[in-house]
């Protein structure tokens, strides 16, 4: 089975999940990969596992790289089941000499896979500053709590100057190519952005802390091998990706407004188009996402990449449409910051949907515009008010510059 030399003694021995279309609520139209890395030095170390069911594919790649040579160490950077689901099976097959992970990962592995299983492993907790010499390379461990879970850790391969940061810098992108410079760069960066928005946006502060810590540690990073998607190996790619992360963790965004809406009888839709026209009249780019035809993960992505967003809903039974309700729950969890935001929409006789959106967005501490609600269908005067709402949103977005 084909495997890939990443650089020096590091091999990619991961697996490709071409058919993944939903990652805990995040629509993944391009599938994903679960990347694992084998360092073939005087000692052999495997960094990260894969999702349950993909173990045989990974094992075939490992055997293709090193035959029946023993695996001295297995490093588990993160316990989420997309990385640790196949670990018990892989441990049975590979019988690694020792398994290394953070203390929190050790506890979580026992809860996921059972103490009876995990207690049989030679499991060692490691933390920031701990090192594991392999020969020409040394593995350096850096705890990365909340990037993505409390147990998360980065592994740095010193000889090859390669960072293996698990979820950080990943993308849900299935491809037979392994490197960002071998695929359409726009696609790789777009998927990195979508991944950050949908997986890592709530953890901007700890991620920024990690970026700063790596800077303070003076680690030279010539390549980044995340655990999903393609590997970044050209200096210019690493530089652009880190710059993008610095922007995202700072909640910087382009001068853009995103309108996220759904509609029952086209009234909220008419309002949306008028607002979009108002945004455009101010020379600001506008993205429009209708949640009954586009995934909420794309809306989250566009909110990351926009300085402002408005949410439009009709009223259904005194509340929002179910598509908007699901989106509000999702976006509250992702917790965008430093955004201009607002609510609009139509209602029949009682209203309630726009008020609910306004209250829920206000609770996120966003820079809120006054809500705009119309009864039944917008009149010409009300559509003019929608245009003005779009213009005002755009003006506020430009003022953030
Ligand atoms: Fe790729 Fe947090 O798991």
Structure description:
The protein is of the alpha/beta class and 401 residues long. The chain has 13 helices and 22 strands. The strands form 5 sheets. A 7-stranded mixed β-sheet has the order 1-2-7-8-9-10-11. Strands 17, 18, 19, 20, 21 and 22 form a 6-stranded parallel β-sheet that branches. A 5-stranded mixed β-sheet has the order 12-13-14-15-16, with no helix packed on it. Helix 6 crosses helix 10, helix 7 packs across helix 8 and helix 9 crosses helix 13. It is elongated, with a radius of gyration of 24 Å. The mean pLDDT is 97. The structure holds MU-OXO-diiron (FEO). MU-OXO-diiron binds next to helix 2.
Label this structure with key terms.
single chain; 401 residues; alpha/beta; seven-stranded mixed sheet; six-stranded parallel sheet; 13 helices; 22 strands; elongated; binds MU-OXO-diiron
* Mean residue pLDDT: 97
Largest sheet: 7 strands, mixed
Task: Tell me how many strands there are.
Answer: 22
Helical amount: 25-40%
What is the topology?
Layout: E1 4-7, E2 10-12, E3 15-17, E4 22-23, E5 26-27, E6 32-34, E7 37-40, E8 44-47, H1 55-66, E9 73-75, H2 81-84, H3 87-94, E10 98-101, H4 103-113, H5 115-118, E11 123-125, E12 131-133, E13 138-143, E14 153-157, E15 162-164, H6 185-200, H7 204-217, E16 223-224, H8 235-249, E17 256-261, H9 267-281, E18 285-290, H10 296-304, E19 308-312, H11 322-334, E20 340-347, H12 353-362, E21 367-368, E22 372-375, H13 380-399
Parallel strand pairs: 8-9, 9-10, 10-11, 15-16, 17-18, 17-19, 19-20, 20-21, 20-22
Antiparallel strand pairs: 1-2, 2-7, 3-6, 4-5, 7-8, 12-13, 13-14, 14-15
Helix pairs in contact: 6-10, 7-8, 9-13
């Amino acid at each position: 089975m084909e495997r890939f030399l990443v650089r020096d003694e590091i091999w990619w021995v991961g697996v490709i999940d071409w058919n993944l279309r939903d990652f805990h609520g995040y629509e993944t139209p391009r599938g994903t990969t679960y990347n694992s890395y084998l360092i073939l030095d005087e000692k052999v170390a495997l960094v990260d596992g894969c999702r349950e069911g993909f173990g045989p594919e990974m094992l075939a790649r490992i055997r293709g790289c090193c035959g029946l040579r023993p695996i001295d160490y297995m490093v588990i950077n993160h316990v989420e089941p997309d990385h640790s689901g196949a670990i018990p099976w892989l441990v049975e097959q590979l019988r690694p000499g020792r398994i290394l992970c953070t203390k929190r990962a050790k506890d979580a592995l026992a809860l996921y896979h059972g103490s009876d299983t995990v207690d049989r492993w030679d499991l060692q907790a490691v933390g920031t500053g701990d090192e594991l010499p392999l020969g020409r390379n040394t593995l350096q461990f850096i705890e990365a709590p909340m990037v993505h879970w409390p147990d998360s850790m980065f592994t740095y391969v010193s000889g090859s100057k390669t960072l293996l940061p698990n979820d950080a810098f990943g993308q849900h992108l299935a491809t037979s190519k392994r490197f960002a410079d071998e695929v359409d760069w726009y696609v790789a960066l777009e998927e990195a952005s979508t991944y950050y928005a949908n997986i890592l946006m709530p953890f901007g502060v700890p991620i920024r802390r990690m970026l700063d810590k790596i800077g303070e540690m003076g680690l030279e990073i010539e390549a980044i091998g995340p655990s999903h998607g393609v590997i970044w190996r050209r200096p210019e790619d690493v530089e652009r990706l880190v710059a993008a992360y610095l922007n995202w963790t700072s909640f910087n965004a382009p001068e853009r407004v995103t309108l996220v809406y759904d509609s029952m009888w086209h009234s909220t839709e008419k309002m949306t188009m008028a607002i979009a026209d108002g945004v455009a009249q101010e020379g600001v780019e506008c993205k429009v996402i209708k949640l009954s035809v586009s995934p909420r993960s794309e809306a989250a992505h566009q909110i990351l990449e926009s300085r402002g967003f408005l949410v439009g809903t009709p009223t259904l039974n005194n509340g929002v449409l179910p598509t908007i309700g699901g989106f509000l729950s999702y976006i509250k969890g992702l917790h965008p910051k430093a955004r201009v935001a607002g609510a609009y929409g139509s209602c029949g006789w009682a209203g309630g949907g726009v008020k609910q959106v306004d209250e829920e967005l206000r609770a996120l501490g966003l820079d809120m515009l006054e809500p705009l609600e119309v009864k039944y269908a917008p009149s010409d005067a009300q559509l003019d008010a929608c245009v003005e709402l779009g213009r005002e949103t755009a003006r506020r977005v430009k003022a953030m510059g």
